[in-house]
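I keep forgetting this: the sequence line spells out the residues, with the fold written below as integer tokens. I include a record here:
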Amino acid sequence: MPHPAANAPRTIVPINSRLNQRLTAYMAAASAAGVGILALAPSAHAKVVYTPANTTINGTTTIDLNHDGIADFVIGFQELDKSIILFVGPQVTGNQMRIANGGAAAGFFGVPVGPGEKFAATNSYSWGLIMADAGSYSITWFNGPWANASNRYLGFKFLINGEVHYGWARLSVGNYLHAINQVILTGYAYETVPNTNIVEGHLSDGTADNLAPTDLLAPAPQPASLGMLARGADGLAIWRREDDAVVR
């Protein structure tokens, strides 16, 4: 025989409004993170091939990302009027570099390179994209996205057997292009699966190349967002590094 209380109407206890807001925000963030992780999850066959380097660029240096004997990109110097320009250019038709503000973007550790990014083979010069520009004429100048850059990343889009792959190269640029031993290539990598993101500085097993903590800082702090949370552990790590930059 059922207990009399079993048929009694249940009392609905309202949730505290502040607790309700926190639960709603938590569920939204968790959902976004889950979707983001699934979307960014690499293929089971994805593999990053990384090549360490310690190459000083005084003239020009080519990069063969996938070691097939064909140079994919060239980095070097070009004299123009009263200035000298550090540039990067494609060596194969269809290859391109990630671009920002008309020049070669100087990426940071942890930034993905892949579909949806802006790439170009050249700007107003036939030989490629400008990385930095130095000169002296009444005044002395040294500017561009790669001026005084330490362990920054070039993003690459290139072809293997007609299919698009993505990669990166890490370089440091000293305090003036006219001085020797000021541009050093320290490593490069590419993703073996076509049309798949590669994360600057990350290797296949999720580890990173050996860099000093200060080289991992992103350029500008920003609050944690659902978009950042959607990147999972990598997003939180980048956000914490940005937070540390403000404290310092």
